[in-house]
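ok trying this again, last paste got cut off
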Amino acid sequence: MPYLILLQVLPLLVPSLAFRNPSVTRSFQHSAHRHLHSSAAFSLCSLNDPICEYHTINIPTSQTGPPRQAISVEDLTPVLLGLLQNSSMTNGVIHVISRHTTTSITINERESRLFRDLQAFLLKLAPPDERSSSDARVDGVLYKHNDIHLRPDSDEEAQRCLDNGWNITDATQLQAWRDQEPINAHSHLLSMLLGSSECIPVNNGEMVLGQWQSVLLFDLDGPRDRTIGIQLMGYKSSE
């Protein structure tokens, strides 16, 4: 499968690598096809127009109530299927990335009891700060990130606040920024553990996923409406 992905995507990424030279192209095709399993093999002649699309998609939360640093999950698979069908891409790759620092993207089974197991497991790995609004907060747990009164902690961090529209050189604006900052260090830590992106191969117009696999967005600091980025790279079929 990695060779299949490489064969489809590499011409899009590096068009200067002499793919228009027939001898180079034949050599590359021969090498790649020798490593392709018969079930994944395809005819290069059936690949036509290259495609590279990017979409920013809003994912509304399915949960109710105000944000309270709860863990929730949303199934992205239907969204990806819809974009894939509309694109007419037959072979390539779908890249999915979260645009937040307290969410994650993963591929696994969506099952309610498994989710509750995962929620309990994650909260043991990184329990919420005793100052958190989470129902799972633990007395005695303190994270430095949550010392909001000491932030920003450096000139570089102060500049990031300014770049994002907070004039923290003004005392009122500084306090307003601190007031809206959640006590969510545990959510950041869990996001880094789980990862923020996934890559799904597409073969013959279908995402290559197992029978019980779904592409899932985990909100680790919710419930909130969230945003993801999706890029489709590959080829449409000429047939």
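PB: full thing came through this time. The first helix runs from residue 2 to 13.
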